[in-house]
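Check the record.
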Amino acid sequence: MNTYSLKDPVTASPPLVKLGLSPDEARCYEILSREGSQDAKSISLALNILPNAVYRLVTRLMQRGLIVKLDTHPVRFQAIPPVSAINALAGTKIREIEEYKSASLEALSSDPPVHTGIDIITGRKEMFAKGAEMINQAKKEVLIISIGEPVPDEIKLANRDAINRKVNIKFIVHKSDQENRLLLESWIKMGLDIRHYPGSGYHLSITDGKTCLISASNPKNPAERISMYTNSEGLSNAMRNYFYSLWEKALPVKLN
């Protein structure tokens, strides 16, 4: 990995600063993103700051989910890939703007504002956790489009509990063949209404036409996923209409 000396000028990226990072935080993230993992001494030299200040700096970046600490000696720090890191940073900024907007509307209007939130979620595990939360809160309907892959126990339990609450769960799977046949049959026995429509690369969940979760995966690494969650009823209803347009074309998956 490259290391720096005090002769190497590293300037902060204005867009990163506008997204909420301090100049030193932005410069540190850029160094790690472009040059790979670095130890505290290399970061100290690059930023021209004391080692103690480096540890405070990397702690803030780890808390923001932008870098991770590697189990090495000496300890090195590595940047989260920019696609995930910048989306997470932008998501935080979007939430702040939404909060400012709602607070401004509430202060200037006697009518209560509509609070519409957008969250950016990174990772497969985090996507499933949000999906389980949505299913647990559903009152009437859960609509899902996904590949038809094994899911964590928290999703299975959420589906079971939703069905016990008389929630209608409709599932369009991208894949239906011998490889996942037993899995689909187990879902049907649980009470899910499943149909097959070919597709790939994305996941969609809608609950009660009020909330939705849209996810896209990296074709080279399906475990790497970026998701957007919103409680916008307008967008959720648009996605609900899209779901039913595919549902009419999809073929029912039945037990053998």
Summary: The CA atoms of residues 91 and 155 lie 25 Å apart. Residues 1-9 have pLDDT under 50 and may be disordered. The domain at 116-252 is CATH 3.30.870.10 (Endonuclease; Chain A).
